[in-house]
């Protein structure tokens, strides 16, 4: 049984997965391909021999017709899909990753969709000291408020969760059974409302052998179930 009351805090040791930095970019160019430039991935690289570091962009886009995310690259290196939701809808989004041992600043994330978008956003995360660059567990949810799902955690590992919608109002996001470490990464308006790739929750889980939790994401300030809400979470060890 996972003790969810202890899902908080940071363990400052080299043998625990760490998030070093995140950055956010948004554009309303109405394009098919977006370039998010001069993003920051953190100044630290791997600190243990044989351990791994990845850059992990979360991509979100709003369109007036159904779209998919065709490709994502980080500094011209193709990124692989980790978890996606909303493919072939007006709001596709998901986490992608690329192994990267050194790039810290001046990072460019290029995203191509299957057609023109109203807006697209990118949240870039940097993870280091991974036991494996393969995600331990993923979960996705959409179309409800709150959204929820089950995801596995690993002692000493990390979970990242991101949410987005095109709701016209946004107050905050309440996560359960954990607490948001960083709220409101950014929001931008476009012609018919608001796209928010705004809540990041990172969970350095360092107690016990690991286990499964039911993660819930509740958009405060009203029901956004009609505003294409999306939730994607990934965990690593």
Describe this structure in words.
This protein has one domain. Helices cover 0% and strands 55% of the residues. It has no helices and 18 strands. The chain has strands at 18-27, 33-39, 52-62, 69-74, 77-78, 80-85, 93-99, 107-113, 119-130, 137-142, 147-154, 157-165, 173-176, 182-183, 187-190, 193-205, 210-219, 230-236. The strands form 4 sheets. Strands 10, 12, 14, 15, 16 and 18 form a 6-stranded antiparallel beta sheet that branches. The chain has a 5-stranded antiparallel beta sheet with strand order 1-9-3-7-6, with no helix packed on it. A 4-stranded antiparallel beta sheet has the order 2-8-4-5, with no helix packed on it. Residues 1-14, 45-50 and 183-202 have low confidence and may be disordered.
